[in-house]
Amino acid sequence: MNLLKLIEAFKKQSVLVIGDTMVDKFIWGKVGRISPEAPVPVVEITKETETLGGAGNVANNITSLGAKAYVVSAIGEDNTGNSLIKLLSEKNINSDYVVYDAHRPTIIKTRIIAASQQVVRVDREIKGSFAHSTELKIIKNIEQLLPKVNGVIISDYGKGVVSPKVLTKVIALAKKYKIPVTVDPKIENFKKYKKVTTITPNTKEAIEGMSARNISTDADIENLGRKILKTLNSESVLITRSEKGMTLIDRNGRVTNIPTRAKEVYDVTGAGDTVISTMTLALAAKADLISAAEVANFAAGIVVGKIGTATVTPEELNKTITEFYK
Question: In angstroms, rounded to a whole number, what is the distance separating the alpha carbons of residues 32 and 279?
Fold first, then answer.
């Protein structure tokens, strides 16, 4: 399939992202002395920034690629929640279906950085199941949105939005409407993602999710992928393997190894979000699995060459692919 035509088709797609949204806050500063109260550095703050984290960053990748993104999630009735909605709006991400829960805070992860080094990270969150009423609202919003979209991403960070009931409902509706549903898995929930179109674990997630041992060779990875397919009864699995690229295995047992397209690797933060976003958009645009994985691989190669949680644009993808095939 022509990858450039595929990228052009992205702007006609709309994707529903279901999962745990959060705010990533960065406090930047400099260190000039050690505290007299304890053997810790004193950070003098120079600036503060906030970005979308979790499922919000997945949605950000969708809109960056020119498509429309909807988010179904649950946040608290607090200032952080207001900040998150504002961040979604700034990125042209539809937040009309985000549910508010008065009993849970909006997740915020605060990183204090000095001299380009992370000094400490502070998380404010409550994990676990949401109230039954909140879960029902999430399911209702999913039911309303599914007929409107071309693809679904389940972005599970294990905070509670992707409950067993939500997962069952999403997969059943996606099958009904014949749209692809992809999963960025959480290790502890790995074996619950049954009958999805594609699951995109990295090597660590694939090994630990299946409680596998002695995985080292390409053959080991391929066999592990086949076991994942059999266990989940899914259509395909795309295992991302850092410098070794990706391994795609479909339900017929066909294996496609795709070497990395990264020229330089500065930061792998958010690369998984870019992979699943690009892969899902390609499948939504009716691409075959191999073409979808190839374009996702090019996107990952671009994003790891950037510092921090980054996204990819259609222009960047077009340029990279054109130069590669010259």
Answer: 45
Nearest in space to 59 (alpha carbons), one of 47, 51, 68, 46:
68
Longest Cα separation, the chain = 64
Q: Whole-angstrom Cα distance, residue 101 to residue 76?
A: 5
- Sheet (strand 68-72) strand order: 68-72, 14-19, 151-155, 181-184, 198-199, 236-240, 246-250, 255-258
Q: Which of 101, 220, 273, 288 is catalytic?
A: 273
Judge whether residue 9 has pLDDT over 90: yes
Is the backbone of residue 149 left (phi > 0), alpha (psi -120 to 50) or beta? beta
Tens of pLDDT, residues 135-153: 999 999 999 999 999 999 9
Q: Would you state the torsion angle of the CA atoms of residues 54, 198, 178, 290, taken in this order, to the nearest 10 degrees?
A: 120
- Rounded to whole angstroms, the Cα distance separating 273 from 312 reads 11
Specify whether 288 is catalytic.
no
Could you give all domains of the chain from N- to C-terminal order, each with its CATH number? 3-31+41-324 (3.40.1190.20)
Whether the Cβ atoms of residue 267 and residue 226 lie closer than 8 Å to each other: no
Measured CA to CA in angstroms, residue 93 lies from 63, 77, 151, 177, 305 at distances of 7, 19, 15, 23, 25
Best CA proximity match to 226, nearest among 241, 242, 237: 237
Note the pLDDT tens digit of each residue in 39-65: 999 999 999 999 999 999 999 999 999
* 264 within 8 A of 222, measured Cβ to Cβ: no
Give the residue ranges of DSSP H helices in the chain: 3-9, 55-64, 79-90, 132-145, 164-177, 203-209, 218-232, 271-284, 289-303, 314-324
* Tokens at 63, concatenated: 């809109």
Residue 213 phi, psi (nearest 5): -135, 160
Task: Please give the full DSSP string across 56-112, using - where no structure is assigned.
Answer: HHHHHHHHHTT-EEEEE-EEESSHHHHHHHHHHHHTT-B-TTPEEETTSPPEEEEEE
Q: Which pTM does this prediction carry?
A: 0.93
Which of 55, 102, 51, 96 minimizes the C-alpha distance to 76?
102
